[in-house]
Specification:
Blueprint: E1 3-8, H1 15-25, E2 30-36, H2 38-44, H3 53-61, E3 68-72, H4 78-84, E4 89-93, H5 102-106, E5 110-114, H6 122-128
Parallel strand pairs: 1-2, 1-4, 2-3, 4-5
This protein binds [cytidine-5'-phosphate] glycerylphosphoric acid ester.
[cytidine-5'-phosphate] glycerylphosphoric acid ester is lined by residues 7-10, 16-17, 19-20, 36, 45, 72, 92-93, 95-96, 116-117, 120-121.
Keywords: Nucleotidyltransferase, Transferase
Domain Cytidyltransferase-like: 5-127
Organism: Enterococcus wangshanyuanii
Length: 132
């Protein structure tokens, strides 16, 4: 079984995220999503989520490409996650290109950056809705 992992906040969930998850799943048979906790988002990413971790987890678990959702509560957990879950491929959108190359040096996992869906973002959604 080829195992894939990806990381993110996924709030507000939109089709750019779905594209990412679909593309990530194409690299294997089992996709794990490490979902940023509310605390990690607030303290480390300065992001205030609209949906709580539990609600974002519920949404992700309903997506056909996703097999398991685990918490992301540290920038430094990736190498340990890859060992713990026997990950073959680490996938992120290419807005992160280069940021996680160290993973292929420190683990046997392949690092793949897939094209980010250009025209959609949570920031854009909020702007279009006239909310801050
Ligand atoms: N993404 C995308 N297209 C978009 C928006 C997001 O492909 N229009 C991808 C991002 O590149 C990322 C994933 O969807 O791979 C999740 O995006 P976010 O929820 O914004 O997560 P981020 O803040 O990038 O957190 O440790 C890594 C971090 O947790 C990543």
């Amino acid at each position: 079984m080829r195992r894939v992992i990806t990381y993110g906040t996924f709030d507000l969930l939109h089709y750019g995220h779905i594209n990412l998850l679909k593309r990530a799943k194409e690299y294997g048979d089992y996709l794990i999503v490490a979902l940023s906790t509310d605390e990690f988002n607030w303290c480390e990413k300065k992001k205030k989520c609209y949906f709580s971790y539990e609600k974002r987890k519920q949404l992700l678990e309903a997506i056909r490409y996703v097999d398991l959702v685990i918490p992301e509560d540290s920038w430094d957990q990736k190498v340990l996650d890859i060992a713990k879950y026997h990950i073959d491929t680490f996938v992120m959108g290419d807005d992160w290109k280069g940021s996680f190359d160290f993973i292929s040096e420190q683990t046997d996992a392949k690092v793949v950056y897939v094209t980010r869906t250009p025209e959609i973002s949570t920031t854009q959604i909020k702007k279009d809705l006239g909310v801050d």
